[in-house]
Amino acid sequence: MSDEQWRAIVGNDPSYDGQFYYAVKTTGIFCRPSCKSRPPHRENIGFFRTAEQALAAQFRPCKRCKPTGQRLPDEEWIAMVTEYIDRNYKEKLTLAALASICHGTPYHLHRTFKKVTRKTPVDYIQQIRIEKAKAMLLSSPISIAEAGECVGLSNTPYFITLFKQKTGYTPESYRQQHSKDDLT
């Protein structure tokens, strides 16, 4: 990648639109140079002369800049968002950060996510985290605080409250109850 191309991306320069497209390897999305989404890390970028080449390389068009001139179907976009959450649930995930990473606005992401999955992005993130924590509690002797931290919930009282809200058990009582079930 040339410094000129990098400056075009960081500066959202529309004069480079149509000259090249850039793809973000970590998200699987490709954009026009003028895309207003958060600039990617330079090492995660690939380049294509045409949108067709990016599509052939299995990259999806950005929802924000629409490099193919067409919208990505909502189901495909939300599948991409849920895949990202599934891989990165341990990180601090906010609606604004997800929207930026997935090239949309927070409002549109929230509304579309709920329409497609029947739950909010926060509900989905919490569900993934609690499922992972349940598996950890039964498969290893780690502390409750460590289990929370391993799933992205470093505030132990919040982790315990959320766990009980979602499962009906505190993490410790869940571990005791379900460990007994496995033994009988």
TrEMBL record:
<keyword id="KW-0489">Methyltransferase</keyword>
<keyword id="KW-0805">Transcription regulation</keyword>
<dbReference type="InterPro" id="IPR004026">
    <property type="entry name" value="Ada_DNA_repair_Zn-bd"/>
</dbReference>
<keyword id="KW-0234">DNA repair</keyword>
<dbReference type="GO" id="GO:0008270">
    <property type="term" value="F:zinc ion binding"/>
</dbReference>
<keyword id="KW-0227">DNA damage</keyword>
<dbReference type="GO" id="GO:0043565">
    <property type="term" value="F:sequence-specific DNA binding"/>
</dbReference>
<dbReference type="InterPro" id="IPR018062">
    <property type="entry name" value="HTH_AraC-typ_CS"/>
</dbReference>
<keyword id="KW-0010">Activator</keyword>
<protein>
    <submittedName>
        <fullName>AraC family transcriptional regulator</fullName>
    </submittedName>
</protein>
<dbReference type="Pfam" id="PF12833">
    <property type="entry name" value="HTH_18"/>
</dbReference>
<keyword id="KW-0808">Transferase</keyword>
<dbReference type="GO" id="GO:0006307">
    <property type="term" value="P:DNA alkylation repair"/>
</dbReference>
<keyword id="KW-0862">Zinc</keyword>
<feature type="domain" description="HTH araC/xylS-type">
    <location>
        <begin position="79"/>
        <end position="177"/>
    </location>
</feature>
<keyword id="KW-0238">DNA-binding</keyword>
<dbReference type="InterPro" id="IPR035451">
    <property type="entry name" value="Ada-like_dom_sf"/>
</dbReference>
<dbReference type="GO" id="GO:0032259">
    <property type="term" value="P:methylation"/>
</dbReference>
<dbReference type="InterPro" id="IPR009057">
    <property type="entry name" value="Homeodomain-like_sf"/>
</dbReference>
<dbReference type="Pfam" id="PF02805">
    <property type="entry name" value="Ada_Zn_binding"/>
</dbReference>
<dbReference type="InterPro" id="IPR018060">
    <property type="entry name" value="HTH_AraC"/>
</dbReference>
<dbReference type="InterPro" id="IPR016220">
    <property type="entry name" value="Me-P-triester_DNA_alkyl-Trfase"/>
</dbReference>
<dbReference type="GO" id="GO:0008168">
    <property type="term" value="F:methyltransferase activity"/>
</dbReference>
<dbReference type="GO" id="GO:0003700">
    <property type="term" value="F:DNA-binding transcription factor activity"/>
</dbReference>
<keyword id="KW-0479">Metal-binding</keyword>
<keyword id="KW-0804">Transcription</keyword>
